[in-house]
Amino acid sequence: MTLSIVHKAAALLLAAGFAAGAAAQETTLRLVSSFAENGIYVQRLQPWIQKFNAEGKGVLQINFIGGPKAMPPFEVGNAVKTGVVDMALNTGAFYTNVMPEADFLKLTQVPVAEQRRNGAFDAINKVWNEKGNMQYLARMVENQPFHIYTNKKVDKPDLTGLKIRITPVYRDFFQALNANVITTPPGEVYTALERGVVDGYGWPIGGIFDLNWHEKTKFRIDPGFYDAEVSLIMNLPAYAKLTAAQRDYLQKQLLALEAQNTFWAQYAADEVARQQKAGIETIRFDAATSKAFVDRAYQVGWASAEKQSPEIAGRFKPLFSRK
């Protein structure tokens, strides 16, 4: 064997070693969604995952397992906590069974970019690390206020005599407005409206057309309150196992995802127009009443948070609230 051939063989072996090392460094994260694949949240996430995988070859990949057909939504939080999956697209309201503080995220009144600057994001992660065995990665939905939708017209923020379908997100607030609250799965709301089992429901500004609820809805009460939160969370040990390069890459892509959140303000405006076109009438109060209505929502929300977890609520409130 000539010296030249030896050098070439050595170079090939060295290159093969580098390639094997690079392949060994690539990690694939299993991601599940609490939301349906055909819904707006997953539709918004899919292009991001494709870009993530295209740019992350040899470093980090995401394997999207699926939505509720793969795992029931209210089991996702615990699956992340225990490491059954590595990541999830989820909302805090869906994993209060893991930690009640998860629902506090609805009370944020400042954008996620500011939360990263003012210490709120770090405060969230301290709690998520300690109580949920999770890393809170990124918030991908903002500017999606909740509203009260009804089939009966009201002239003031008082739901006395009305049967309103709720989730835990706004249970306390609706009860403070004297509503008779009823809990049903989303799949049963259409029939409940049709049969008069409920007179209305709480829901974000977007999404009622996906469920065909607009067909049984006459009014939307403005203004909205709280902010629907949908975020990426990750199992803490899985996050800790990432190399520095993998963590840097993940962070870069997470910030790019949050940078797309300007979409949601326009989406909200489009949904308002779409509801109007569908014949849903807007109920508006005067300025003073509207302000009192929103203030009451946050007063009730924070009172509930302080009752559940006074120390953490006290830590979050100044960081989450609009100055």
Would you give an account of this structure?
The chain contains 12 helices and 11 strands. The protein is of the alpha/beta class and 323 residues long. It has a 6-stranded mixed β-sheet. Helix 5 runs antiparallel to helix 12 and helix 11 packs antiparallel against helix 12. 36% of the residues are buried. The N terminus is likely disordered.
Topology record:
Layout: H1 3-25, E1 27-33, H2 40-55, E2 60-66, H3 76-82, E3 87-90, H4 112-118, H5 120-132, E4 134-141, E5 146-150, E6 163-165, H6 171-176, E7 180-182, H7 189-194, E8 200-204, E9 219-225, E10 230-235, H8 236-241, H9 244-258, H10 263-277, E11 281-283, H11 287-308, H12 310-320
SS elements, strand count? 11
The profile of the biggest β sheet is: 6 strands, mixed
Spell out the helices and strands N to C.
HEHEHEHHEEEHEHEEEHHHEHH
Terminal Cα separation, in Å? 77 Å
Low-pLDDT ranges: 1-23
Strand order across the biggest sheet?
A: 7-6-8-5-9-11
Radius of gyration: 23 Å
Shape: globular
- Strand percentage: 15-25%
Assembly state (oligomeric): single chain
Q: Estimate percent helicity.
A: 40-55%
Average pLDDT across residues?
92
Treating each run of at least 4 consecutive H or I residues as one helix, how many helices? 12
Going by helix content, strand content and strand pairing, the class is alpha/beta
